[in-house]
Design a protein that fits this description.
Layout lengths: L20 E2 L9 E5 L5 E4 L21 E6 L5
Antiparallel strand pairs: 1-4, 2-3, 2-4
Length: 77
């Protein structure tokens, strides 16, 4: 679970981006923290980088690695 201290550092969003699921080895669409919906492991990753695959935490049979954006990290351009 992602943690934070200051409420002003995070904002709630209803964006559908948080509902999209990604397979291992796919490119991250956004900067931020992605969470595996089956084991709860998290990874901080930059947009365009590859989401972890087999070196990721081992799952029980029938529980595939499925990443989902948990916290978006806004980067000013």
């Amino acid at each position: 679970m992602a943690w934070y201290k200051y409420d002003a550092d995070v904002q709630k969003s209803a964006s559908k981006a948080y509902d999209e699921k990604f397979k291992p080895g796919e490119k991250a669409k956004w900067h931020g923290i992605y969470k595996c919906i089956n084991c709860g492991d998290e990874i901080a990753i930059a947009q365009g980088h590859t989401l972890p695959a087999q070196n990721h935490y081992q799952h029980a049979a029938g529980k595939p690695i499925i990443w989902r954006l948990s916290v978006y990290s806004e980067q000013k351009k």
